[in-house]
Amino acid sequence: MNNALRLACLCAVAALVTLAAVQGAASAQDKTIYVLEIEGEVSKATETIIIRAIDTANEEGAYAFILAFNTPGGRTDSMFKIVERMQTSSVPILYFVYPKGAISASAGTYLAMASNLVGMSPLTTIGAAEPILGYDSTGAVIEAPEKIREYYTAVMRSYAEDHGRDPAVAARFVSENLSLTPEEALALGMADVTADSYEAFVAAIDGMAFRGRVNGETWTLETSDATLSFIPLTLRDRIIMAIANPNIAYLLMTIGILGIVFGFMSPGVGIPEVAGVVCLSLAIVANGYVGFGYGGIILIIIGFVFFAIEAMTPSFGLYTAGGVISFIAGSLLLYSGTDGGGSGRFFSEESIRMFWINVAVMTILVVGFLVIGLSAALKLRRKPPTTGTEQMLHEKGVVEDDLNPSGTVLIRGERWKARAGGYLPRGTEVLVVQVDGLTLIVEESTHKGGETQHG
């Protein structure tokens, strides 16, 4: 009996140890920190990419989300949209100025102050968030009015205060255009850790309570057993980031407008119009006037229009080339940002290969149908009729009953009512010049030098 009791106790202890180990392993596996590494200006493109990455981290139950950003600043409207999504995240947002030598200026500083923790790599800087209205013709900065400066100062102070940072120091990022090194930011409480790699960053925040609240709570991060999962940039991400670059967007807009203007000035060439329409469409998307999804639809529609024009006009493939470019660009903007499940996070080589195959096949089918098929249909429509009375135009025959001016003629072995402009005796060779219902209008046909003359 005692042996049986001892055996039962041993089994219970073993079960508890196994359960604890399984729970510990599961807990370790659940501590996945998602990482988005991005470089460039804050734009509509980066807004879309960052918000989608935060959504992915929330939907897939990440332990935390690291936004590794190297940015000189950018659009304030996109910055506000990103901050808005950060504040509704159910996972902590960790901001990392990375890699070594990177900057987080202007709009990037606002994102840092709105984050739950801030890390900085060596030789990086943060700050210089004074708002400007742009640059004049000499390249000098156009300073914002005082009320705009005060507004953005208040925004920066609010972000910092909500996350337990000194609002007075944060306000200096705007009012004094303050910039800080990692050591200075750490000393003033504007950064929480310094690290030269992701692993070092995750190790440095282990046991640290993040700033602000997530779901109304604050807790201590336990990252010693956490794993990193990098969110890759898809082909669509790279395309929209490239065209959303202010310099590229401005160049596209300029080329687009000039192309259309030159097209009106020199009608019939075709090249300026095609290049202008494609570039202007991309510029409209790049500047955020329409979303990237709607932009993709617009480009695909423009591609179909180009195919139709190619079918109706002899342009030697010019509109086909423009249509193919528009159709592929629109397809990339519409579909290449997501995988089969629609999450937009993982994009395997197989899915990339299948996507390009689908785009190639659809492009070939569309071009074939609209250019070859429609061209053939239009050519058939333009051909002279081969049935009915219309087929009798320009046919030759012989007068069977004198035309004075009406009578009958024999054409291709068929007897037709005919009318001439004057008297034509029986046996005269005639040519059909018009059809009036079931009556043929004819005139005498004479032969000289092997050529037919109408007289």
Structure description:
The chain is an alpha/beta fold. It has three domains: 29-231, Alpha-Beta Complex (2-enoyl-CoA Hydratase, Chain A, domain 1), CATH 3.90.226; 237-382; 389-454, Nucleic acid-binding proteins (OB fold (Dihydrolipoamide Acetyltransferase, E2P), Beta Barrel). Helices cover 49% and strands 19% of the residues. The protein is built from 14 helices and 17 strands. It has helices at 2-30, 44-59, 76-87, 107-113, 146-162, 167-175, 182-187, 198-204, 235-244, 246-265, 271-286, 292-312, 318-335, 349-382, and strands at residues 32-39, 64-70, 93-97, 103-105, 117-120, 125-127, 132-135, 141-143, 179-180, 193-194, 227-230, 396-401, 406-411, 414-419, 429-436, 439-448, 451-454. The protein has a six-stranded parallel sheet with strand order 10-5-3-2-1-11, with helices on both faces. A five-stranded mixed barrel has the order 12-13-14-16-15. The chain has a three-stranded mixed sheet with strand order 4-6-9. The relative contact order is 0.07.
